[in-house]
Amino acid sequence: MRRIPELAAVPEAPALPGSPQEELAGAAAVDPRSAVDAAAAQIGDRLREMLVDDPDAASILTPVALARHAARRGVITPQTASSVEGLFVLRNLATDAMGADKARDFLVLADAVLYTLRAKPGE
Q1: Which of 43, 20, 17, 33 shows the shortest CA–CA distance to 111?
Q2: How many whole angstroms separate alpha carbon 92 and alpha carbon 59?
Q3: Which residues of 32-52 are buried (b: 16+ CB within 10 A; e: fewer)?
Q4: What is the largest CA-CA distance in the chain?
Q5: Distance between CA atoms of residues 63 and 120, nearest Å
Q6: What is the pLDDT along the chain (123 residues), one digit of tens a residue?
Q7: Residue 19: CB partners within 8 Å, gap ≥ 6?
Q8: Distance between CA atoms of residues 67 and 84, nearest Å
Q9: Is the C-alpha dihedral spanning 88, 38, 110, 59 positive or negative?
Q10: How far apart are the C-alpha atoms of 18 and 15, rounded to whole Å?
């Protein structure tokens, strides 16, 4: 059973191939914090890919700062930047004692954020 009430009402969706949910579900059961950190790293990596031609992005260290920069540059929408920021707030609030259920919920949310980062503008 899901531990985040807002997600409890949402039916289970199959994981997309190559998504954090698919790749890290097993790891979430064994080491939830590492699975969450790996999913967060995928988001940072995707933002870096999107900003590869932007010389100013090279010095930006955090995914949240990258998302804000990408939004200012028009590479992503402000709403997507807010989604990245909210996801990282959730990650930072989690304790080292995060359970597998919450880690799996985080992976579902990370999938959603990555989906928006992979979409073409206007889609």
Answers
A1: 20
A2: 22
A3: bbebbebbbebbbebbbebbe
A4: 45
A5: 19
A6: 345 555 555 555 455 456 666 677 777 778 888 888 888 999 999 999 999 999 999 899 999 999 999 999 999 999 999 999 999 988 887 666 678 888 888 888 999 999 899 876 555
A7: 107, 111, 114
A8: 7
A9: positive
A10: 8
CA–CA separation, 66 and 48 (whole Å)? 7
Query: Global pTM?
Result: 0.77
* Residue type at position 23: E
| Tokens standing for residue 96 | 């080292």
Cβ atoms within 10 Å, residue 94: 17
Residue that the structure tokens 């989906």 belong to:
115
Structure tokens at 5: 């009430």
